[in-house]
Specification:
Largest sheet: 5 strands, mixed
Radius of gyration: 21 Å
CATH topology: Immunoglobulin-like
Structural class: alpha/beta
Oligomer: single chain
Distance between the termini: 50 Å
Number of helices: 2
CATH architecture: Sandwich
Strand order of the largest sheet: 2-5-6-8-9
Shape: globular
Number of strands: 9
């Protein structure tokens, strides 16, 4: 009887340790993180990209976009935040989808990519309006 109790205790401790280590704060369900960098926001790669849709799900900004290329497999994408906060209610931030595209084909491909918005959160607020360059609608991010 004592051996069974000891085994049960070890199993319970193992389950507890496994569940306690599930989130270290660095994991994200998004493809990439937003990069807060005013210099790269202004001067980062800016090959032509057409944004067709954007929406927020949880802490991820999902952007559907298209660009010309051979396959789109060699595109380098990033989302840069301007590191500027517009004092309004709610506050606003400005982001730009940056594409570095070296594919010289005339085909047009559409992709969707998600970006983790946690780097642009502000401790004093729980809502931010996101202004995505070349997209006509403002996006409300609540966290």
């Amino acid at each position: 009887m004592r051996m069974t109790s000891l085994i049960a205790l070890i199993l319970l401790m193992g389950l507890y340790l496994f569940s306690a280590c599930s989130d270290d704060g660095d994991e994200s369900m998004c493809d990439q993180k937003v990069i807060v960098d005013s210099e790269r926001h202004m001067n980062g790669p800016s090959d032509h990209v057409q944004i067709t849709d954007a929406r927020i799900e949880g802490d991820c900004l999902l952007i559907t976009f298209g660009a010309s290329g051979c396959s789109g497999d060699n595109w380098n994408l990033a989302l840069f935040d301007a590191a500027v906060i517009a004092e309004s209610f709610p506050v606003q931030r400005y982001v730009r989808l940056s594409l570095d595209n070296h594919e010289d084909c005339l085909a047009f491909f559409t992709r969707e990519m998600s970006f983790d918005l946690e780097p642009i959160q502000l401790k004093e607020y729980d809502t931010i309006i996101i202004n995505l360059e070349d997209y006509d609608q403002q996006l409300q991010y609540e966290y």
